[in-house]
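We were asked to recover a plausible sequence for a given structure. The inputs and outputs are reproduced exactly as logged, with field labels preserved.

PROBLEM: sequence recovery
POSITIONS: 131
GIVEN STRUCTURE:
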């Protein structure tokens, strides 16, 4: 919800990058940057052309975005209810399965090293490594 148009930079040395920023100084340690692939950048350009957002990338309420995500899940034929939290965990698990360095996953999620210890255990459980 807090992603603004100026948080996305197409001209970084590694391509397109999303800078996750927070308005509250209390969250400054959660700020991070996420490299985005070319397919994402192409889709985002199409989104900009269609919706022409002014400041925020998604100018809808959180509930409206949840409904849109739910519709996407239904169109994709998913049997489970799709949520943003599920997307976050799926991304973390896939990164882990693809050999992404654990600290990079931690940074992408924007969690502290202390929180990461618990989350890594959960990711390993989701991957069938620990019970």
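RECOVERED SEQUENCE:
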């Amino acid at each position: 919800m807090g992603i603004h148009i100026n948080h996305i930079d197409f001209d970084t040395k590694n391509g397109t990058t999303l800078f996750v920023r927070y308005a509250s100084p209390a969250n400054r340690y959660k700020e991070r940057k996420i490299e985005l692939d070319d397919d994402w950048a192409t889709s985002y350009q199409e989104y900009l052309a269609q919706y022409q957002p002014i400041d925020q990338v998604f100018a809808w309420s959180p509930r409206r975005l949840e409904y849109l995500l739910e519709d996407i899940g239904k169109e994709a034929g998913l049997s489970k209810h799709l949520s943003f939290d599920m997307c976050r965990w799926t991304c973390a698990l896939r990164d882990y399965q693809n050999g992404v360095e654990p600290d990079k996953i931690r940074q992408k999620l924007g969690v502290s090293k202390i929180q990461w210890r618990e989350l890594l255990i959960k990711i390993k459980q989701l991957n069938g490594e620990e019970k």
